[in-house]
Design goal:
The chain is built from 7 helices and 7 strands; from the N terminus they run βαβαββαββαβααα. With about 200 residues, the protein is an alpha/beta fold. A hairpin with a 2-residue loop joins β3 and β4.
């Protein structure tokens, strides 16, 4: 059985892979994230740095999957807010506007040295939100650990007017794009799936 290591502490990424019935390990990367370059270069380089950090530490051969997700409003990068006040400011900026969510993916099979990487972009349009609704959302979610200060599940479903692109990408792991990259390594998510472990989110 192919050993899969997810280089991420994200509960949403873990939930998405678990729902597919995958057996995998988690090892959190210590790599520094960069905000230099164009958006696609930025997220892909960050994912590659996470991949390489974990691949250097895992020991036994494995396929390492790393991802990096950022929110872009025009030329502005919306990372994780420092506190609730910054979260409210980010949500106010997103209100009524369309922004982009980009996820970079980077994989390596440490047994063969083969790599694969790419990115996915989704346009997300927010509803017009009142200050009271923003306050209520921040109180409910405390989104200081989320790029752009929001989530799209739970209370976050009330923020979004529409999507154009991959929904799972907004959660942090574009599944179809990941499957395509795995196929470049001779694997697939269907092939790695344990059907007895599949679940619904």
């Amino acid at each position: 059985m192919t050993r899969i290591v997810l280089a991420s502490a994200s509960p949403r990424r873990k939930a998405l892979l678990s729902a597919l019935g995958l057996r995998f390990e988690v090892m959190v990367s210590n790599a520094e994230e960069s905000l230099e370059g164009d958006p696609e270069t930025m997220v892909t380089a960050n994912a590659r740095a996470k991949r390489d950090d974990v691949a250097a530490r895992i020991g036994l051969p494995a396929v390492v999957i790393a991802a990096d997700t950022l929110v872009f409003l025009g030329n502005r990068v919306l990372g994780k807010p420092a506190d609730a006040a910054e979260a409210r400011a980010m949500l106010a900026a997103l209100s009524g506007n369309t922004h982009q969510v980009l996820t970079g993916l980077s994989l390596v099979d440490t047994a063969t040295g083969k790599t694969a990487e790419g990115s996915e972009c989704t346009d997300v349009t927010f509803r017009d939100l009142s200050p009271e609704e923003i306050d209520r959302f921040v109180e409910a979610v405390n989104p200081v650990d989320r790029a752009g200060a929001y989530t799209v599940d739970g209370p976050g479903s009330l923020l979004i007017a529409r999507y154009d692109g991959c929904y799972q990408n907004v959660l942090g792991l574009p599944i179809v794009r990941l499957d395509g990259l795995l196929r470049g390594l001779g694997l697939s998510l269907f092939g790695l799936m344990d059907v007895s472990r599949c679940a619904f989110l």
